[in-house]
Amino acid sequence: MDKLFIENLKKLNIVKENDKITLAVSGGADSMYLFYNFMDLKEVLDLDIIVCHLNHGIRETAKRDENFVKEVCDTHQVEFIVKHANMNDFAKENSLSSEEAGRILRYSFFRENSKDRKIMTAHNANDNAETILYNIIRGSGLNGLVGIPVENNGVYRPILNIKREDIEKYLHENNLKYYDDETNFEKIYTRNKIRLDLIPNLKNYNENIVESLLRLSENANEASHYINNEADKNYNEAIVDGNLSVKYLKRTDKFIAKEIIKRFIKENLKDSEIINRNNLNQIYDLIFKKSGTSIDLGENIISRKSYDKIIIEKIREEEKKSKELKLGNNITDFGIINLSREKLNENSTSFIKTLDYDKIKGAIYVRKRQNGDRFKPLGMTHNKKLKDYFIDRKIDRIRRDEIGIICDDEKIIYICGMDISEDVKVDKNTKNIINLEVING
């Protein structure tokens, strides 16, 4: 085994005795370096190893590489699994770049065959340096400067700290066979251009540019780790009723506040497309705007300030419908509403109100709010605008359309989860009652 390989494994501490491992092997120098060294390690640590090879179907020599990897696997008595896919067709079908399509196909294939296995890929130090430059060119933030992680979601990169020149030197000195992928020398992909043009030019200014970029990665990784820890410590306090607290974000450092916002989006919307510097800055700026201010983040997602909260959510497209209510359970767009002339037992998931049945005029139905609605809250002697009632209670502007308004033929008699009307309250003259129970409303 190569001393660099052994030292790197000890440093990373990612391979244990009796591990089950999937090696991603293309047949190129990096993956064959990984393969040959793991074949020696296999006996030492009694490893259970399989090899996965994806034939992208985009070059004439792909079959040559497939046959080569199969032959060396047969020689070393290692299980060989191959899959054929057309990277370019997949890219067109899914509106992806060829590079992104290839990445998705590869990792999907590796995971298909790696239940309870550690996936090992052959990314090296030069790949990491190229990724950092690629991210800088795209205008990356701090996380982009971290580069390729050693481990991510069960994928390990045990030679990430070894330079390509050291890999090729070891293979040549030990007369170990591999095949070059000729597309790696064509300036058709951005990463190829970085490898073939940009880095050689940067060496005119700094001969050790790869090492410098790796130091940048280490520094960024340490800074990112510290920032993530700070965001973790602050995160729970920054969330109020499932939304971001304006008060907390205001008193938190701006950088940490934006990290909290970023984490909130990842955890609640699962939509990384809207996570960019412009959107994060706009969301942060909302904390200083007046309540009701909203911004469009794209992907059918908006963010708005609602009193003491910042809300980030998908735009609702379906409108809640009105429905007449009968005795018994009524399934409505506002939840299950139960009308009963008998006493009901309240539980933690329902709101029960008792009304004077004789004060109700005509039918009972539930609907969303309407322009001009007026309501006489319990204990008041006059009607007030429903809009003012919601404002007084600091009810979010969008949520107002989600709240069920229960009415008779003349008036609002109950606002679900809130107040009944003074006009239908039970008093000493009440003879007949009706109970309203709103479940999950």
TrEMBL record:
<comment type="function">
    <text>Ligates lysine onto the cytidine present at position 34 of the AUA codon-specific tRNA(Ile) that contains the anticodon CAU, in an ATP-dependent manner. Cytidine is converted to lysidine, thus changing the amino acid specificity of the tRNA from methionine to isoleucine.</text>
</comment>
<protein>
    <recommendedName>
        <fullName>tRNA(Ile)-lysidine synthase</fullName>
        <ecNumber>6.3.4.19</ecNumber>
    </recommendedName>
</protein>
<keyword id="KW-0436">Ligase</keyword>
<comment type="similarity">
    <text>Belongs to the tRNA(Ile)-lysidine synthase family.</text>
</comment>
<dbReference type="Pfam" id="PF01171">
    <property type="entry name" value="ATP_bind_3"/>
</dbReference>
<dbReference type="Pfam" id="PF11734">
    <property type="entry name" value="TilS_C"/>
</dbReference>
<keyword id="KW-0819">tRNA processing</keyword>
<feature type="binding site">
    <location>
        <begin position="26"/>
        <end position="31"/>
    </location>
    <ligand>
        <name>ATP</name>
    </ligand>
</feature>
<dbReference type="InterPro" id="IPR012795">
    <property type="entry name" value="tRNA_Ile_lys_synt_N"/>
</dbReference>
<keyword id="KW-0067">ATP-binding</keyword>
<dbReference type="InterPro" id="IPR011063">
    <property type="entry name" value="TilS/TtcA_N"/>
</dbReference>
<dbReference type="InterPro" id="IPR012094">
    <property type="entry name" value="tRNA_Ile_lys_synt"/>
</dbReference>
<dbReference type="InterPro" id="IPR012796">
    <property type="entry name" value="Lysidine-tRNA-synth_C"/>
</dbReference>
<keyword id="KW-0547">Nucleotide-binding</keyword>
<keyword id="KW-0963">Cytoplasm</keyword>
<feature type="domain" description="Lysidine-tRNA(Ile) synthetase C-terminal">
    <location>
        <begin position="364"/>
        <end position="436"/>
    </location>
</feature>
<dbReference type="GO" id="GO:0032267">
    <property type="term" value="F:tRNA(Ile)-lysidine synthase activity"/>
</dbReference>
